[in-house]
Amino acid sequence: MAEVGFHYGALADSLEKQANDQGYTLSVRGEVLEEMKFGLVLNHAQGTLTDSAYERALQKLHKKVIAALAPINKET
């Protein structure tokens, strides 16, 4: 798998869009992963999560995002 990167901030594009821009899809898992991202960002912004807890949670989310990636089949 080629190197892929994601941004998880509040103003970042959706995870599916970021994956699509890199030639991948998150398929049916995309919506669930997006909700997880939203919850983490919201809780961190509200102060419910400490910075270190937020970083650990983002690392776990990132592993799930990478595991869900599938190449987009582009038939021309």
A few lines on this structure:
With 76 residues, the chain is mainly alpha-helical. The chain has three helices and two strands.
Descriptive account of the structure:
This protein is 54% helix and 5% strand. It has 76 residues and is mostly helical. The protein has a domain at 26-71. Strands 1-2 form a two-stranded antiparallel ribbon. The radius of gyration is 13 Å and the shape is elongated. The two termini are 21 Å apart. The model has no long low-confidence stretch (mean pLDDT 93).
Write the layout of secondary structure elements.
Blueprint: H1 15-21, E1 24-25, H2 30-45, H3 51-68, E2 70-71
Antiparallel strand pairs: 1-2
Task: Identify the notable features of this structure and list them briefly.
76 residues; mainly alpha; two-stranded antiparallel ribbon
